[in-house]
């Protein structure tokens, strides 16, 4: 006959096999031998509840309580079993007597609340918590438990009440409560309720409620009201200043440039003694806001991108409108102000670098940009910024067409970098491709890929370039190779911002090499470049031709984008987007196109 632990194991095995009666017999025998065997008691109780023998289950628990009067959970379980027997009056008495006896212990209220919530006894739960709060003098007792209970049942008015009680006493849990309230705001039907609850709580002058209300306004795109709510919290100390910087930065990220500028400016205009670190962050943030205003508008937000995020085909240059010149001038002034007011601070290299970025990407003053980058380098930047500066110095040489100087610069940096695939290695590979030395590019590519892993940062970029070389050079005809060499010249032009020359070279390849393997790639590159140059009719014609190539999804989508963004014909654009979804549902463009269609429909409805 099995003994002790073996007996328990055998009984559990019987349960798993579905032989409940034998398992029950084992547990009863164990309890007769040792009435204090908790594991046998728990398993037998669960079997009796599962088989609906609630009278027997209640008797079992009563015997257990007699033997173990300090087992508080058993009292609650007894009440639950009696309640399940439909004897609600007796169950209520059991719980009431339990509360009277042990009501000075906060944990018993939590145990009862969880039981009541499981049984759907909402009113009893509310009365219990109210009694507990009064008795223990803790007005926030079980507020989070109640709030989560109401939240799960979408009783949002009561959920908000309890969350507010909780957050006032536990401000360190601000993120938890904010996340829950903002999730409720996903449904517009809850907006009025949330605002009413939060505004009515402001009279108690709790800053945490103001922050919650400001977050709600921000989430629902009521940015002016968010800013005003933050104003009501004051701007008096470092905590306020950091909160204000976060708000201004978030407004910038939401493209609320005017409000972001206003917020930064208000901080800088304060007649208070502000730490230089705060001033530096405000000046840099303000400069970045003006800088972001320079970025191209929605036309730069195209669905179709040529080899997205691939380092080898990335174009860093930006075009700005004449209306953006004022922002450009203000940006220059702000970064120069940082350098004048905080010359020896950690902001100095950042300001020099931002100036260099504007000179490189926008004004294309490559000498001036290089001077700014070198000044940033001399200002002791951190390691990440230092690497970006060194990379950009090499880019200025490429942009000037001085590929020899660029190669020498990247070689020196590569020797100083211990990483197997450093960004400097990538730049060296890029240069071999731009100069048309395809054999060398292939050799270096192969050697780097052999020593890399799929999770390496640049792995996909390397594989895509290797695929291009393999298709159109290694396994291509002599004409294919010649066309690829011509194409590498196009990429060199693009790195020098010679957009017209690049477009003409692509057109030359398209017209003179009609049968080469790289032709679809050339067509896609030219199609997108013509859009950038606003040669819309040429781009549209090429997009139509792309429908007969492997880039048919791109061709269809581009036609939709041209109708949407250049012609303003949303109905016609929708036809092309629907065509894409119907003809190429598995395309990588399908989901972005669905999102664009949803945005357009929402815009029309509003």
From TrEMBL:
Any single GO BP term: cell division
Xref: Pfam families: TPR_19, TPR_6
Residue ranges crossing the lipid bilayer per the database entry: none
UniProt name for this protein: Tetratricopeptide repeat-like domain-containing protein
